[in-house]
Task: inverse folding
């Protein structure tokens, strides 16, 4: 699989003109060692997890009805509400035909945005979002530890 075939969607619409996107998942681990624990590494207990997503793209103000342009994503951010996302394999025209498996999904709050305009270069936009609620793999919550997002 190539990077152009894994896309980020907000509200079922692709983040248009993306150049990169990332889904980061981290387990929350606490030391569960007691005074009865002898030697070796500490005993670890998984108490939850967090996740976040990010995207870098070319700055866009126009897109078709299937895509979120830069202003669309900014509007989602300023609304201050959790929105559904999917991070999934794609194919076809403009790499927007969704696959049926290997889908990471959940809800996020877009909490950071930047637009960069350097002389003689393309204007770019970057977005970060924090996960809220369960993170699903192909629609299933596999975690015993609940999201701290």
Result:
């Amino acid at each position: 699989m190539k990077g152009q075939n894994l896309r980020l969607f907000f509200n079922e619409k692709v983040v248009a003109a993306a150049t990169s996107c990332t889904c980061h998942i981290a387990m929350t681990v606490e030391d569960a060692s007691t005074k009865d624990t002898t030697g070796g590494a500490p005993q670890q207990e998984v108490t939850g997890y967090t996740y976040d997503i990010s995207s870098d793209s070319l700055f866009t103000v126009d897109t078709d009805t299937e895509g979120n342009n830069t202003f669309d994503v900014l509007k989602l951010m300023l609304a201050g509400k959790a929105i559904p996302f999917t991070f999934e394999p794609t194919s076809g025209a403009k790499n927007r035909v969704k696959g049926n498996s290997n889908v990471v999904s959940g809800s996020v709050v877009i909490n950071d945005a930047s637009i960069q305009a350097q002389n003689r270069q393309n204007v770019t936009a970057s977005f970060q979002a924090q996960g809220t609620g369960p993170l699903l793999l192909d629609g299933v919550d596999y975690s015993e530890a609940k999201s701290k997002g």
